[in-house]
Fold:
Amino acid sequence: MKHYLGLLVLAGVIIVFPLSVSNPYYLNVANIIGLNSIVVAGLNLLIGYAGQISLGHAAFYGLGAYFSGILTVTYQVNPIPAMLLAMLATGLIALLIGIPTLKLHGHYLVMATVGFNLIVNIIILQWDSVTGSPSGFPGIPNLKIGALVFDTDQKMYYLIWGLSFLIIILSLNLVRSRVGRGLRALHGSEPAASSLGVQTARYKVKVFVISTMFASLAGSLYAYYLTFISPKTFDIFFSIELVTMVIAGGIGNVWGALLGTVFFTTLPSVLDVFDEYKDIFYGLILVVILIFLPQGVLVGIKEYFFARKRSSDKDIQADDGGRVFSRGSSAAFCPPLGRISPDRTDDGVILSVRDVSINFGGIMALAQVSLDLFEGQVTALIGPNGAGKTTMINVVSGIHRPTEGSISFFGQEVKGKRSYYLAGLGLTRTFQNNQTFSNMTVLENVMVGLHAKTGKEFISSMFHLPGTGREEKAIEQRAWEVLRFFRLEDKGHWSASALSFGEQKRVEMARALAPNPRLILLDEPVAGLNMTETDEIAKLICDIRNQGISVLLVEHDMNLVMGISDRVVVLNYGRKIAEGRPQEIQKDEAVLAAYLGSVD
Ligand code: ATP
Structure:
């Protein structure tokens, strides 16, 4: 509702503004704000949502302007096809930059885009015969669509702001969709997002390309509006200004980005009264915003007034039919299921790890370890600190590729497959160090868990194509069901970061369980929890097992391990030293020696 209201107010302001000002200067400023808002909307998707920083968007803006200008003036291409070609060419260049840099973890995009901005500026300055060098590129005609010529400030105003309005709608659609949650998830924790089915590298490249195409569109409009372009407009300082607009306005907030654009585009003119001290005041205002409202003006204000939005939404209807986890169906500790024998060694194997090894700089974290996981069983993986338990989970879940050995899941070789791919096969996990997405609500966290089970991508989400709303509803309904199972439904609208540590652990489990996986890997689910919370998690694991879902449990709490596991596998120094029923493991001499120290 609040977004519809916002769009309604914005539409009203856009329509009324030119009618209420007589000074053409204000219309000119409004047009520049509109152009910047198009670039910033794209940049906000990249920085605010996906968490990838670009310091080269002025160059993509410039590419749009120069491609369109050159195509129209030198090659007599009509403005509309020229603009589209410019967007395509810009997107292609962004793809070439994005694929190698965004596959890497860390802020390589910043370096690549800074370099790119400098290179583009040098090319524009040096390629005299094509770009007109420092003196600029004149004679660009006004934009023309059929008989309609956009030759006045007012006509350009409606065109620019019409497109800006459209891009804001597309951005809002995207950020409130499966893709938007995927982007925010990868911003929150890339490994966690990937373990839930988000193709993180691909998402980063796609959102980067989209943001550069928005910048290119704005650049083309700029060229046809001013009819003259010069390299100074597209230098690295403008890239920095654009990032400032995103961050200071409200990072990860479409309206905040718009507010930041209006504020920082007009600020230099407002500060003209301070003459030569203008830059000092500009810097001061920026510093004050960053210190007191580090999340940006809009997000800061919002958080101040609505620090914790508690759910009053208890009437949400969710259908408990189908394969939903049954609450309270298990006893305090797992009763044996009967239908599955802990000793079975042949059929019923869902995951088979064979002779897997991996080392890190000389440390043999896993040495030729083999283990089998059976359908509907809880298998515990235990061992002293540094034994290789988490490494095994990382190897099985696709975070590390083992140097030797094989891993098959339901008969399919999956060694070296990425986490998102495994999530699609029904293998999910939690993490030892809490990796809830703190930038999302509890409900949204669980909704991300359904990423691998759903399929609407960028185009469907942005244009809200048929079926998108239905999929969203189904995702939300399932997320509420899972939250109820985890007794978190009354905190569905809370920010995940506002929950207690124990609740965050439950959110992580809920997220991994949402897609009804066939196997879930739990890495120390009760570490740091008190006894009550531990009991609760124990019951949940039993319930999960009783649904036929297999569990690999890495845990140091021996009461929990011995109480709920069907089988136990023990590692020490990266090697498997024992395997069997919990009662057998408790008496195993090699295990006792590993934990208590050998007497020899
Ligand atoms: P804990 O119970 O303390 O969590 P663990 O059994 O899970 O221990 P792992 O985290 O798997 O042990 O670590 C096994 C060994 O591999 C340790 O010596 C660890 O330092 C090393 N190791 C694990 N991951 C890496 C990595 N990414 N880079 C370098 N060394 C690593």
